[in-house]
């Protein structure tokens, strides 16, 4: 069989696919695709088993909000801190932190219930009180309002804290996706989206593009936010980015808290601004953290299961 020069197919030169426009300039050194969810968990009975291919796992297993409406911020916070810890300390297997402790201990006034301000309050609580491992403060109801058992830093089971809690430009009116690309390349970050009625119905099986309508020329456009029904906020973890094989759509990879049936094993894709009409981002807020140990030895999920 004849061999063809590199960059050709059957003697025809293959034109390299251009980089997405948001990966030029200050982002030229970034890869076109990046994904922190590369290592996958499998379940054997009641035990979670690490990736059979030996890939390093940064993320803990997918959880489900159960009946806890409005608890997405708690889930996103706990897994963001887990990921930051696992990357910083180069853990072979990840730790799993308690989301139930946050649900029980971080209280809100009614007027703040659906605001992204909730994330700031949750992160402040972790700075002031530290956070426990899942094995020491287990996920039970998934609901708000239970008695808090973990207030204060002094408890022996406290494991992890955070050193900083906000992205410096988080208060800007607009989120710059070029900056977000660099941030998520370093580690997963918390992102907040406008959760319209179509977002709530999103199965995660296709790339989410926001609420769109067809204009007179047949092209799709994002509808004004004031036209959206049931406009709320939804927090998820941003774990990576990529481009479809045909090169037509640039997307974010997000980890949701709607269980394994959502998307591909709990993960979905959201279109980046560079692939949306008008170039308007669907992200409304971003938060990033730096994790730190509270005690010298923090057991991984695998070590905790062995102890059980």
UniProtKB/TrEMBL annotation:
Domain (Peptidase C1A papain C-terminal) ranges: 49-287
Keyword tRNA-binding: no
Keywords linked to the UniProt accession: Hydrolase, Protease, Thiol protease
Matching InterPro entries: Papain-like_cys_pep_sf, Pept_asp_AS, Peptidase_C1A, Peptidase_C1A_C
GO BP, sorted A to Z: proteolysis
Basic and acidic residues bias (residue ranges): 31-49
UniProt-recorded Gene Ontology molecular function terms: cysteine-type peptidase activity
Pfam families: Peptidase_C1
Region (Disordered): 1-52
Record SMART domains: Pept_C1 (SM00645)
Gene3D superfamilies associated with the record: Cysteine proteinases
PANTHER family, per the entry: CYSTEINE PROTEASE FAMILY C1-RELATED (PTHR12411)
Family membership: Belongs to the peptidase C1 family.
The protein, known as: Peptidase C1A papain C-terminal domain-containing protein
Lineage: Eukaryota, Viridiplantae, Streptophyta, Embryophyta, Tracheophyta
């Amino acid at each position: 069989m004849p061999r063809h020069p590199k960059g050709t197919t059957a003697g025809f030169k293959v034109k390299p696919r251009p980089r997405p426009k948001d990966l030029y300039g200050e982002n030229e050194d970034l890869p076109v695709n990046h994904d922190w969810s590369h290592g996958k968990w499998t379940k054997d009975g009641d035990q979670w088993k690490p990736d059979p291919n030996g890939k390093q796992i940064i993320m803990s297993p997918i959880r489900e909000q159960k009946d806890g409406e409005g608890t997405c911020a708690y889930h996103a916070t706990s897994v963001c801190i887990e990921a930051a810890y696992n990357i910083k300390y180069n853990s072979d297997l990840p730790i799993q932190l308690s989301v139930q402790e946050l649900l029980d201990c971080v209280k809100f006034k009614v007027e703040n219930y659906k605001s992204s301000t909730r994330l700031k309050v949750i992160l402040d609580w972790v700075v002031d009180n530290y956070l426990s491992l899942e094995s020491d403060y287990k996920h039970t109801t998934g609901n708000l309002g239970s008695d808090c058992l973990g207030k204060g830093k002094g408890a022996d089971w406290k494991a992890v804290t955070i050193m900083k809690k906000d992205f410096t430009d988080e208060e800007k009116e607009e989120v710059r996706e070029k900056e977000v690309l660099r941030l998520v390349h370093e580690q997963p970050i918390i992102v907040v989206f406008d959760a319209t009625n179509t977002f709530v119905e999103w199965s995660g099986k296709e790339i989410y593009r926001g609420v769109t309508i067809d204009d007179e020329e047949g092209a799709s456009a994002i509808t004004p936010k004031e036209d959206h029904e049931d406009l709320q906020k939804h927090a998820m973890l941003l774990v990576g980015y990529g481009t479809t094989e045909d090169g037509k759509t640039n997307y974010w990879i997000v980890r949701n808290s709607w269980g394994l049936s959502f998307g591909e094993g709990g993960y979905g894709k959201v279109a980046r601004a560079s692939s949306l009409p008008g170039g308007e981002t669907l992200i409304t807020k971003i938060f990033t953290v730096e994790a730190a140990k509270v005690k010298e030895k923090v057991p991984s999920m695998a070590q905790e299961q062995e102890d059980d």
